[in-house]
Amino acid sequence: MLYKPLPLLGVVISLSISSNTIAFVPATVAILKPPQLSHINSYKRCTQLYSTAEQSDTKNKQDKTSNHDWVEADLISKLETHGTDSSEIYPPTQHKTEFVDEDFVLTSKSQAENDQALNMLTSELSIWKNLRKSREIEGLPIDIILQRTWDTVEDVWQHLRRIPLEQGWAELSPESDSTRKTIVVLGSGWASHALLKVADCQKLRLIVISPTNHFVFTPMLASAAVGTVEYRSMTEAVRAANPVIDQYIEGKAIGVNVKEKYVDVQLNSLLDGLREGSPPTMRIEYDHLVCSVGSKVDDRGVPGADKALRLKSCDDARRLRTSIGECLEYASRPDCKKDFDERTKRATFLIVGGGPTGVELAGELHDLFQDVTRKHKGSYHNLSGNTRVILVHGGSDLVPQFEPALRKEALRSLEEKGIQVILNTRVQELGDGFARLSTKKVDPITGELLGEREESVLPIGLAVWCAGTAPVSFVSNLLSQLPQDAKYQDGRVKVDRWFRAPMADDSLLGSIFVLGDAAAFDEMGDGTLLPATAQVAGQAGAYVARLLNRGFDLETTPPLLPCIDPENDNTCDVFYDPQFIQWLKFRGFDFSPPFRFLNLGMLAYTGGGEALSQVQLGDVPILSVAGSVSYLLWRSVYLVKQVATRNRILVTFDWWKSKIFGRDVTRL
């Protein structure tokens, strides 16, 4: 069926997933119009009938709620705003269809949902309706939004002051350089990267220590693992994130002395094969230590899980991409050409974990196999019907971070694409070509979980572990020197509302900050911790950078603004800036406000040009939508949130390249 697009130029609200800004991205949303929908009256009739069918379905199925509340005025007003004459928007067609017939009866809601045009139109109307409702919602975190707006103004000013140093037009005076505080930053992930972007290097001497010399946009690792985008398109070098940092050291922190304020660093081995001997260790002193070392995959207690692939870094994505190609090549060997079951086993991919990472990887693998197994054109067209993607999840719902309706939509979307989803299941063992599973039995009548479990063995070609995280060894080393109550039950470091690690000696308070996956942050004091997500880490990194830029006295609670009276205060140093002090006093920052997280929502790709979007401001929901329109929002946000213009251009080019030429399956 041919479809005719009706461009609706609007503004898609792209809420930042990694920081505290809100970007507005112009986008053209195409509502696909089949030829038989020839004029507005047809749409009127269709919406009336759809509403009737929806009410009928609701009456018959009381346990289900409608995803869409059709309002005829919404549709008509939207269409009529794009042309005074309906015939100009939808020219009359010679096709005779049932939609023009006034006697046509839409007997079920599913009939409209199966129509691509109506399905996409539903999502579009849902966005408009939710945006209109949001203006009437009370309880929006206006105070946090205003605070972040002023923070952004402050950040822009800091960036402008940095330009002369970046361009070599100016240099720090020896007096200013000698009074700068040394900030040692461990890691190059979301928290560290946000801190580097915001930190004022005229006041702070930044030393970054990380075994990887780049930041990676982790939400797109699944795309990189199948060749939709290239690795370098979604990364930024540490030195490029802030060109005026004092030093970057490629190595791994292996120890810390809290009292003496230094860290021991094991340098990376460089030029392997060309130089002999082990790389040296070195000791780096600090005034403040920012511990944002991330986490590792938690595969404890599962035999063989350590041999499964991961998806937490560019190296992981590169290994996974190579392994996928090898599995497809292995399944294409002549020895199993006539053995359908053996080919299927070799091309079966098991994903452990039904969170956003696992769901997005399943969707990307589906797209890859649809691409490479196309008849005649696909590189592995001989494997058509052999590739399988299996997603195993220990809970009863996929992506539990999302609201219930979107969890169900995630399950429906994956299963429609032929992805096998096994819920309430744990992996007991991973071996060579198999996975041993333990599944909770479900009552076939009531759907309730029973106490018994059923074990099964699944033949697989490759397993990817996307379930659970655990602290890295450096966090344990740090906790051994902190008070006993600093350790959270899962091994993370409990921090206060300014991300300061607790200290036995009060004079050391504020010398160590813990951010990201290594921190257990209780924002409201009720025992509920902020999730270990990129969004939280990015906002936390920017917050600590501002805390250090402003020069608060970090030994006090709350941290106080020092050097208010330079004539009588002998603690004034390079931090003293009378205009900046007045700016902070104007904002009411005689003391530092604690960190407050602004939840902007979540996104997840489910494959086949569909995605989940849960947009909110704080605890106030703005819109929840799934499908093709959500996919446009997903791509808009991911494009806007790339850390540099270079990355946005490269990612856009990669998307077009994979769309036109297909995904590259070469292994280098």
TrEMBL record:
SUPFAM superfamilies: FAD/NAD(P)-binding domain. Pfam families: NDH2_C, Pyr_redox_2. Belongs to the NADH dehydrogenase family. GO terms for molecular function: oxidoreductase activity. Keywords: FAD, Flavoprotein, NAD, Oxidoreductase. This is FAD/NAD(P)-binding domain-containing protein. The lineage of its organism: Eukaryota, Sar, Stramenopiles, Ochrophyta, Bacillariophyta. It comes from Cyclotella atomus. Residues 600-664 form the External alternative NADH-ubiquinone oxidoreductase-like C-terminal domain. The keyword Flavoprotein applies. InterPro entries: FAD/NAD-bd_sf (IPR036188), FAD/NAD-binding_dom (IPR023753), NDH-2 (IPR045024), NDH2-like_C (IPR054585). One of its GO terms (cellular component) is mitochondrion. The keyword Flavoprotein applies. It comes from the Eukaryota. Residues 182-541 form the FAD/NAD(P)-binding domain.
